[in-house]
Amino acid sequence: MSRPETSRTAGRVDVERVSIRLGEGAQAFDAVQALDFSIAPGEFVCILGPSGCGKSTLLGALAGHLRPSGGALRVDGQPVDGPSPARGMVFQHHTLLPWRSVLDNVAFGLKMQGVDKAERHRRAHEFLALVGLQEFAGRWPNQLSGGMQQRAEIARVLINRPRLLLMDEPFGALDAQTRARMQELLLDIWTRVRTTVVFVTHDIDEALFLADRILVMSPRPGRFIEDLRLDFPRPRRAGLLTSPGFTHLKRHCLDLLRHEEGRELPRLTPLGLPDDPPPLRIAL
């Protein structure tokens, strides 16, 4: 099988003073506020923050589904003014068409571009092999497990060779073991295609395991409180999660998020456990 490739010079993201206001009239609110950041081509960036902080809203704006109320979004110097196959989106729940086979789901984007059947099926088989689903090309989506459905979804997006891959908590609905396998698979795929990835999560372990950089967001209105650059060697495997460096950064991220939520941080014992935890209260 020839190895799918995307350009390693494409996929630069520039976000300048972006604010996004949602709702109408008295119900309107600022979801994110004055965001500034850039992402280099081929970089893997995780956006980490609590639920409701505007992570998915920002991703929707990068995809072209939402228009910022202020500021500018550009990919490779071009303004983001609507959806494009050059900016592929993977959601938490798959969007596979239930009446099409796995093969035809993966090939669907090419069909919309007018690619002939033989060529689009050839390329779809190539990307199914990339995600380890070549034996399931003729199955229906409901015949796949949750992890396999997400693998098919990733292949469906990557076949369009996007400059930017946007992922909105794509493994959030999976069990812990499947999620861990999907994280390793994603890193293996990314190493091969090296498209720029912006991955939204509220899971600190996931962000630290996957990313080159973590952009940490505050509660709503979302703003960036830290740009954390990671130097863990690649390829990454499960043993990283118990390393001292990983544990140190995890605690740092926890402290950041707790501080932003206005909580008083617990005093830690040498074992890293809260000293004098509050008593358990059960409502009868």
By helix and strand content, what is the structural category? alpha/beta
Mean pLDDT: 88
Oligomer: single chain
Cross-sheet strand order for the largest sheet: 6-7-8-3-9-10
**Globular, elongated, flat, extended or rod-shaped: what is the shape?**
globular
- Tell me the total number of β-strands: 10
Radius of gyration: 20 Å
Helix proportion range = 25-40%
The largest pleated sheet is described as: 6 strands, mixed
End-to-end C-alpha gap:
62 Å
Portion in beta strands: 15-25%
Secondary-structure element string = EEEHEEEHHHEHEHEEH
Number of helix segments?
Answer: 7
List the keywords.
single chain, 284 residues, alpha/beta, four-stranded antiparallel beta sheet, 7 helices, globular, disordered C terminus
Structure description:
The protein is an alpha/beta fold and 284 residues long. Helix content is 31%, strand content 21%. It has seven helices and ten strands. The chain has helices at residues 55-63, 102-112, 117-130, 146-158, 176-193, 204-210, 244-260; strands at 13-22, 29-39, 44-48, 70-75, 78-79, 87-90, 164-168, 196-201, 213-217, 224-229. The strands form two sheets. The chain has a six-stranded mixed beta sheet with strand order 6-7-8-3-9-10, sandwiched between helices. Strands 2-1-4-5 form a four-stranded antiparallel beta sheet, covered by helices on one side. A hairpin with a 6-residue loop joins strand 1 and strand 2. It is globular, with a radius of gyration of 20 Å.
Task: Please give the structural blueprint.
Layout: E1 13-22, E2 29-39, E3 44-48, H1 55-63, E4 70-75, E5 78-79, E6 87-90, H2 102-112, H3 117-130, H4 146-158, E7 164-168, H5 176-193, E8 196-201, H6 204-210, E9 213-217, E10 224-229, H7 244-260
Parallel strand pairs: 3-8, 3-9, 6-7, 7-8
Antiparallel strand pairs: 1-2, 1-4, 4-5, 9-10
Helix pairs in contact: 2-3, 2-4, 3-4, 6-7
